[in-house]
Write a structure and sequence with these properties.
The protein starts with 18 loop residues before the first strand and ends in a 5-residue tail after the last helix. A two-stranded antiparallel sheet has the order 1-2. Helix content is 56%, strand content 4%. A hairpin with a 4-residue loop joins β1 and β2.
């Protein structure tokens, strides 16, 4: 996207206009067909609708991966990793966790 005016476009861009910078190539016919199916299935009216759908899907996938990380790696930790990693009171959370361990809350 090279400007906000693109979000108002009422149709999916031509296949030739899609370019994957990291891969250094365009998209395949199958990928473009899939994009058109998604556009139709979710009733996208503008490229902005399509981009919003992409972002929402990306967020849901990331949240799912984070939840799985918590289940696998965190185990029986009292405080959720999301609050410990980003909370200004993280030291307080770790202290409370140690107190709960000593009290046998995890046995």
């Amino acid at each position: 996207m090279d400007g906000f005016q693109r979000f108002a476009k009422k149709e999916l861009r031509a296949k030739e206009e899609f370019f994957l910078k990291l891969a250094g190539k365009g998209i395949t016919n199958e990928e473009y067909t899939h994009a058109k199916k998604v556009w139709a299935k979710f009733g996208c009216k503008t490229l902005g609708d399509y981009c919003d759908l992409y972002v929402k899907t990306d967020i849901v996938l990331l949240a799912d991966a984070f939840e799985n990380f918590q289940k696998v790696c965190i185990g029986k930790v009292w405080a959720r990793s999301s609050t410990l990693l980003h909370s200004p009171q993280s030291e307080l959370g770790r202290a409370a966790e140690k107190d709960r361990h000593r009290a046998g809350a995890f046995d």
